Amino acid sequence: MPVAFRPRTNETGPLPSASVSGQTRASGVNPYYQSGEARADRVQDLFGEIAPRYDLINDLQSFGLHRSWKRKVVELAAVQSGMTALDVCCGSGDIAFALSARGAEVAGLDFSVPMLGVAAVKKEGRDVSFMQGDAQQLPFPDNTFDAVTVAYGLRNLASWQRGLEEMWRVAKPGGRLLVLEFGKPPNALWRALYFGYLRGAVPIFGRLFCNNAPAYAYIYESLQHYAGQEGVRDYMGQLGCREARVINLIGGAMSINLGVKQATAN
Fold it and tell me: Structural domains in the chain?
């Protein structure tokens, strides 16, 4: 029987999309990167600009490898028929569709209406429930999902820690949390080469296909303010995830964080 994903009532009232205090950074940096309360608005602007070409540029800048990385996330989620899954910051829906193909009842949540529009076009009758929402205040009760995933979204939140806390909250005891994200390679030489690619080459794709280089220069800028795979692993451990670990891809340029929510003792 399909599971009804019922929004949780928020007794304390909604939080703003960017709920972490902080001052906006000085001018002269990437226009899509802002700290503090302006962060959500800038990220909304960013995805509104790139949504029509999002999948194409993902293919180009990753040489098509993002598809195999997402398949790895779905394999690690280990869902099957009768299970429930949530894909946070679902974007154009790739991971949500793949989870559904494995038999799970799937919800996909994103705060960008243009990105959800792309996912709706790709849906083609597949049984996935898409909805707009804030990853820092997920509209679901505690202990709802067998797997909670996020791909290329945690880094974009005003507080990635808050986003991870929410993923942990809505996961069932024994449920899996998975984060696919740009990484920080441990090897200094490879890290310098990779960051150079993000800083110099990736914005060219944005200029050529979206007429917007800063939209893709944002990747490098936001990554500099993100904890990276080791920081996410450590925070998963603090939340009470067991088996918190990092799976580095292409030398840590991409990474998957996996944690299992600890079952509560009776």
Answer: 36-184+227-261 (3.40.50.150)
